[in-house]
Every structure is written in C-alpha cells, then in structure tokens.
C-alpha cells in the first residue's frame, strides 16, 4: 500500500505511527546524546563524499573516535593561525575524571587528526585543574595499563605521547605512581635501543625519580642502566 516504503535492498519498512514514536529528552550539559543518523539514500553509495565514515559498511572506528563522534569528549579542537588549542564545553575542573581521564589516555594511541591532538592536550589540561591529585590517584590501576599500551605501540609518535603523559601523571600523583612503574619499565628499556628516544627516556626516568622520591626500582631498571652505559 502507500504506507509501505520500499528500500533499495528490497526490505519493506512501515512508517511508525505517532503512538509508536518515542519521546526524546533534552541532552544534559557536557553529555550530549548522539544524533540519529538519517537513512542512506541509494545515491549516497555512488558518491564517496557523502559516505558516512561511521556507517555499517565502513571500517569500525576506534573506541576513542566513536566516543568523540558521539560528543562524549567535552572539548573540541580549535584551529589557530599559529597553533591549535582546545575549547572545553564546560570548565575542565567541573568534569568528572572518571571516566574522562582514562578515555583521554586511551586516545593517546590514536594516529589520526584530530584525535591525536585532543587526547594529548586534553589529558594534559585535565591534570592541570585544581584537585587533580585527589581525582587521579584512584584511577591509577586503570590508567597504568592504558599508558603501558601506548608505550608498547610501534608508532613513534604514539610512544612519545605515552611517555609525555606518564611524566605529566607522575608530576601530579607523585609517589603514588611508584608501585605501578614496574609495569612500564620493560617497554621503556626496549625503546632505549632507538637512539632518537634514548635521551628523552633518560630525562623521563630522572623526572619520575624527582616527582616520586626514592623509588625501589625492579630488575627492569638495572636493564635500563645497562643500556645507558653501553649505548651512551
């Protein structure tokens, strides 16, 4: 009948009546709900410019990219004439660290723009707010495995972002990070074989000791010291 829509795939869909349509509520500040995606038109398949990058036939986005696309990250990249910056939808100090700080740390493994900038700068700026120490310490058991994955990544830029984030986190939480360092040093020791990271890793280790005080280093640190002696 006239009330039945025929899609290009042959599937018949009956329009919903007014009773069947559900009511939608207004999204909460800093937590916008994802907008409903319109049904693709047959012509969309023929025009690459109109293909939805998050569509069913496209490569699935990463977890961070998906959250960013749905508005789950309360900040956006602002292009400047000299350098880029972040614009927060609400004051960073009002944003719950759980789960945003962990989500931003997961985004450090991204390799595409703007996710690379948003995750790195967002992680840094969130750790700069007042009370960051008390908010970040309870998240260490979840943050350290995520940073470990960044430090184990084959991409040099991902490793660099992970190392910077580790130092930033250490400056905020201090000695509370010491018990978790044993999970990270193996990945650092492997990168010491790469000349372009040797100095940066050495400086990072010095800062970890500076922020954490006297650290009871595991065996991995002796391996790092051996690398420094042999390849300095």
Automatic annotation (TrEMBL):
<dbReference type="InterPro" id="IPR019399">
    <property type="entry name" value="Parkin_co-regulated_protein"/>
</dbReference>
<dbReference type="Pfam" id="PF10274">
    <property type="entry name" value="ParcG"/>
</dbReference>
<dbReference type="InterPro" id="IPR011989">
    <property type="entry name" value="ARM-like"/>
</dbReference>
<feature type="compositionally biased region" description="Polar residues">
    <location>
        <begin position="19"/>
        <end position="28"/>
    </location>
</feature>
<protein>
    <submittedName>
        <fullName>PACRG-like protein</fullName>
    </submittedName>
</protein>
<feature type="region of interest" description="Disordered">
    <location>
        <begin position="1"/>
        <end position="57"/>
    </location>
</feature>
<dbReference type="InterPro" id="IPR016024">
    <property type="entry name" value="ARM-type_fold"/>
</dbReference>
<feature type="compositionally biased region" description="Polar residues">
    <location>
        <begin position="1"/>
        <end position="11"/>
    </location>
</feature>
<feature type="compositionally biased region" description="Pro residues">
    <location>
        <begin position="29"/>
        <end position="41"/>
    </location>
</feature>
């Amino acid at each position: 009948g006239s009330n039945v829509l025929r899609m290009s795939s042959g599937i018949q869909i009956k329009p919903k009546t007014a009773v069947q349509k559900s009511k939608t509520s207004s999204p909460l500040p800093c937590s916008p709900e994802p907008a409903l995606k319109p049904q693709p038109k047959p012509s969309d398949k023929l025009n690459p410019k109109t293909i939805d990058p998050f569509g069913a036939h496209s490569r699935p986005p990463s977890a961070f990219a998906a959250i960013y696309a749905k508005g789950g990250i309360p900040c956006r990249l602002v292009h400047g004439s000299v350098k880029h910056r972040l614009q927060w939808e609400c004051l960073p100090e009002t944003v719950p660290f759980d789960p945003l700080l962990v989500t931003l740390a997961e985004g450090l493994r991204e390799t595409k723009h703007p996710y690379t900038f948003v995750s790195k700068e967002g992680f840094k700026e969130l750790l700069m707010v007042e009370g960051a120490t008390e908010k970040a310490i309870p998240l260490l058991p979840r943050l350290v495995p995520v940073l470990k994955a960044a430090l184990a990544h084959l991409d040099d830029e991902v490793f660099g972002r992970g190392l910077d984030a580790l130092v930033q986190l250490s400056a905020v939480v201090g000695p509370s990070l010491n018990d978790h360092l044993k999970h990270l040093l193996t990945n650092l020791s492997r990168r010491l074989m790469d000349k372009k990271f040797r100095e940066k890793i050495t400086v990072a280790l010095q800062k970890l000791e500076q922020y954490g005080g006297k650290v009871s280093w595991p065996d991995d640190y002796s391996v790092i010291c051996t690398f420094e002696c042999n390849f300095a």
